[in-house]
Amino acid sequence: MKLILAEPFKTLWAGRDAFAEVEKLDGQVFRELAARRTLRTEVDGRHYFVKIHRGIGWGEILKNLITAKLPVLGAGQEWDAIQRLQELGVPTMTGVAFGEKGSNPADQHSFIVTQELAPIVSLEDLTMDWVKQPPVPAIRHALTVELARTLGTMHRGGVNHRDCYLCHFLLHTDQPVTVHNIKLSVIDLHRAQVRSKIPRRWRDKDLAGLYYSALEIGLTRRDKLRFLKAYFQQPLRQILGEQSALLAALERMAAKLYARKQRYGDAL
Prior knowledge:
Shape: globular
Oligomer: single chain
Radius of gyration: 20 Å
CATH superfamily of the largest domain: Transferase(Phosphotransferase) domain 1
Mean pLDDT: 92
Low-confidence stretches: none
CATH topology of the largest domain: Transferase(Phosphotransferase), domain 1
Strand content: 15-25%
Order of helices and strands: EHHEEEHHEEEHHEEEEHHHH
């Protein structure tokens, strides 16, 4: 069993069964499934997000593996990803409670509690009207560079997201957003993977997912080049020469995701 508690939960749950206590938390429920529950709760005047994972069963595990999907077995993946991102200096959530019990992955019980990030706006919401109402060019450029720098640091540090879309990057708005004052935090890391070095396949999936999610915000060729330069941290001439196959593949992968969205909606 693993159990890590910081305040206020260290005091709140002292001498109690944390796994039972976390199940008692209530608030605004965002997801309610047999194997997972996500909610926003308030404790001592502060808001937190709670994710509770219950065993998904061997049937669901095998179903995921047969369809070439890696199942999410518990809260450990998100906790580990948060710790690695903090080591890398990538802004993300702050975990204040984590618990995991059960050696059988099919019926493991785990949870993670993180502090709410606020005030923020997701890049998906921020860019929704960019085609009709373009932002100040300097801000657009700075956001593009910071997004690329953030993802590049993640990937070089061994973390791939697996749900890498604009909606999972949050812009902090507690201070006026200027070219020199842009902070992005990465969220929803329950599917993230942490390694010493990520395989190219998973890197490319993240890049394609992010590109797909930005297809309707009015991207220009210069936006794409600016992103690539900041992501790879290399001169554009070198990138275009060495990464031509990757860039062509990303176009195909993003187009495939977009076509699927047109057929099935947002259920990717």
